[in-house]
Design a protein that fits this description.
The chain is of the alpha+beta class and 471 residues long. Helices cover 18% and strands 46% of the residues. β18 and β19 (398-410) form a beta hairpin.
Length: 471
């Protein structure tokens, strides 16, 4: 009796397991493969019940046919268990991929992990100029460019007012990273649509060409390609709406380079380009430099925030770039920048720059690198600039930044004329709200004043709102 009970208990357990798993295949000729799942389960239940009845009648003895059915049922259950394990493993892998994607870890193709990101951004601004208006379709309509603030003599002042809307700052990037025998090989391609010049019209489609921002390859500590100049610390730019922000106070250059990082020290050779001011004040570019620009930067990151100190040495060349001029000179500069944490979430960001012959590095080339003396030799131009910004978090997702920036050039007026920029300063304040991390609504006000060497000046007042979706 005990044996019959054990058989019945075991068979019923097998029956229950098989029914729950619902994955029974053709266990015997009696279980037709084409039958619906419910019919196959019912048929197996009937077969197992018959086996139970025969076991009781035969005092626990199992005949050959019953044993085959039981073995086949056991095989089906085992196969189903293996299938469920594979499905569970697949689900776990899918969940891993989902979490990796959600955390920004990208996706893998072969041995390379790719990431895609960027943002969509729509800007609307209203600008008032105190001294006239800008030329149509200038880039200064879309973001703050100090050298395009109009200036006029006091006796001929007239206001200018512009309203502009643009989605040109929209940005897209893709990066790849491959582990090669313990070495990290990576690269990045990034572009937006902030093309300088009148390459498109606002009359109908507002189409703009993509503009290359970054395109570089990195092998462990070696970087080759185009990215931010090593002389610049882009990480300390204020949290704001404008494309650059404190333009006159910051180094702002992207260019091809070869950079090597050794711990906290970076050494780079970068693309040389000399911008020359002619006697009329007009600029001409010379790419005749025989030597690359050389940059050394020290980076210090700690609990307090970060600090960088960068030095730049460059050869300034003009070989037939203006008439028959053939001369060169040396340029050099220093840039100190940092971010200091204040309390739990606030911070102070700053940058200070000074140098000779580094005009194209500062404020998107507010003034040029050199002027031409009467004897045909090059005269490097001294420049000084900087900014300081305080960022305050009012509540989670709600923050403001107050920024002040300045620029001063020591132009040799006898060589450059009086129409070149002498000084610029600006003040900016904003309010940004991110209801979720990927979405930001913002409003910003910028006031700026520009003065040229002749003494004429002009101001700009700009109110701007934007919506940005980062992905």
């Amino acid at each position: 009796m005990m044996m019959r009970c054990e058989h019945r208990s075991w068979l019923r357990a097998l029956l229950v397991t098989s029914t729950v798993m619902s994955g029974i295949g053709a266990a015997s000729p009696a279980l037709a493969a084409g039958e619906p799942l419910e019919k196959r389960v019912e048929r197996l239940e009937g077969l197992l019940e018959q086996i139970l009845q025969r076991l009781e009648a035969q005092d626990g003895k199992i005949n050959t046919q019953d044993r085959q059915i039981l073995e086949q049922a056991r095989t089906v259950v085992s196969q189903r268990q293996e299938l469920e394990q594979k499905v569970a493993a697949t689900d776990a892998k899918a969940e891993e991929v989902r979490k990796a994607s959600a955390s920004g870890d990208g996706f893998r193709v072969g041995k390379t992990r790719f990431k895609i990101g960027g943002y969509l951004k729509a800007d609307f601004n209203a600008t008032r100029y105190s001294d006239g208006d800008t030329e149509p379709e200038v880039v200064g309509d879309d973001f703050y460019l100090p050298q395009q603030i109009p200036v006029e003599a006091a006796a001929s002042k007239s206001d200018g007012f512009d309203t502009n809307a643009s989605a040109r700052e929209t940005r897209l990037w893709v990066s790849g990273e491959t582990d090669v025998d313990g070495h990290k090989l990576s690269g990045r391609l990034e572009f937006d649509f902030q093309v300088v010049g009148t390459n498109a019209t606002e009359r109908a489609t507002n189409n703009y060409s993509p503009m290359l921002r970054h395109a570089f390859i990195q092998w462990d500590n070696l970087l080759v390609g185009q990215t931010w100049s090593t002389f610049q610390n882009a990480e300390v730019l204020p949290d704001g709406i404008d494309y650059v922000g404190p333009t006159e106070g910051t180094v702002f250059v992207r260019q091809p380079q070869i950079r090597y990082t050794m711990g906290d020290v970076q050494i780079a050779i970068e693309n040389p380009e000399t911008v020359v001011t002619q006697a009329s004040g007009a600029a001409v570019s010379s790419n005749d430099g025989a030597l690359p620009d050389i940059v050394v930067r020290y980076v210090r990151k700690a609990d307090f925030g970060q600090f960088t100190l960068a030095g730049l040495v460059r050869q300034l060349d003009c070989k037939n770039c203006v008439d028959t001029i053939d001369d060169s000179a040396m340029g050099y500069g220093l840039s100190a920048a940092g971010l200091i944490k204040v309390g739990a979430s606030d911070d102070i960001r700053f940058m200070a720059n000074a140098g000779r012959g580094i005009g194209r590095y500062i404020g998107i080339n507010i003034v040029n690198d050199v002027a031409i003396r009467a004897d045909g030799s090059l005269k490097p131009i001294d420049v000084y600039s900087g900014f300081v910004a305080y960022r305050h978090v009012w509540a989670p997702g709600l923050r403001s930044t107050l920024t002040g920036a300045f620029f001063k050039a020591d132009n040799p007026v006898a060589l450059t004329g009086g129409n070149v920029t002498d000084r610029v300063w600006s003040a900016q304040v904003n309010l940004l709200w991110s209801p979720v991390p990927q979405l930001t609504f913002g409003a910003e006000y910028i006031y700026a004043e520009r003065q040229i060497e002749s003494g004429w000046d002009g101001t700009m007042s700009r109110f701007q709102v934007s919506t940005k979706y980062a992905f």
